[in-house]
Amino acid sequence: MSSKGIDFGHAGPLREADPARNCKRFSGRAALLTAAARGIGLACALRLAAEGATVCVTDRDEDALAEAAALAQQAGLTLHTSVMDSSDVLDTATRIETLQQLLGPFDILVNNAGGSLHTPYHFMDETDAHWQSVIELNMLSAVWSCRAVLPGMVARGVGRIVNFGSKAGRFGSLIAGANYAAVKGAMASLTRQLALEYGAYGITVNCICPGIVMTARTRSLWSERRTPAERARVLDEIPLKRHCEVEDVAASVAFLASDDAAFITGATLDLNGGQAMA
Ligand SMILES: NC(=O)c1ccc[n+]([C@@H]2O[C@H](COP(=O)([O-])OP(=O)(O)OC[C@H]3O[C@@H](n4cnc5c(N)ncnc54)[C@H](O)[C@@H]3O)[C@@H](O)[C@H]2O)c1
């Protein structure tokens, strides 16, 4: 539990200092974060809200959304929430359209939706259905969200899009299989192409690539798919000697969403404590 009473549900120690400080980089801006009622996405949403953004969080889990909104309220913040299935093209298009009618066009889009969906680690065990579901959640969800917010960003000549890749897509994964690694690699390519196409409209598109972050989902994969000895060895091989924390990701997303990153686009940001360097 942090000093602000926010429990992000991860294993590592939370920082005592509130990283949002008194900085209000997002006053007057509206942000949409997909599949963000828990874990990394929730930490990013709270960070953007703490820095003054009007924040809307979508997720398919209505109870988790209610918990997220209550958590934010305890910290003196507001999260607008909406049930939305990021793996469903129609739901994504209609919900985002409705949200923009209610809240105005989004200035910031964080395509957080993703994960390996506990699909098999070994390539030969991955069926087409596994591939399809992982591609839909991780990449098509971002395509559909971008399609919904880009016209508003283009019309106003401003926008920040942050996509979620992963260390898996850059250097391989120790807990997820080929489908997840491949689609996370594709997120970096999608990012570069959108950056190329939309730069002239004042829109930046960047991709963040965290190493393992001990959210509830990854914590169980980490213990199921790696032995205690392997887990200790991997940790020891990370130069910074710890795993990524949700606040690390939130700080980087906030940076890429801010004017401080106005001249950065098409970039892939590794966030892995030096575990893999390029
Ligand atoms: N956790 C990690 O180690 C890690 C590392 C690198 C990248 N990432 C990426 O970061 C992002 C967030 O990961 P996380 O571990 O916080 O996620 P998570 O598994 O904790 O899930 C976050 C939320 O996604 C929601 N969700 C799942 N499927 C959905 C759907 N179809 N529609 C709407 N909501 C849905 C869940 O209800 C949950 O609230 C993902 O893109 C993931 O691939 C995670």
UniProtKB/TrEMBL annotation:
It comes from the Bacteria. Belongs to the short-chain dehydrogenases/reductases (SDR) family. PANTHER family: 3-OXOACYL-(ACYL-CARRIER-PROTEIN) REDUCTASE (PTHR42879), 3-OXOACYL-[ACYL-CARRIER-PROTEIN] REDUCTASE FABG (PTHR42879:SF2). This is Short-chain dehydrogenase/reductase SDR.
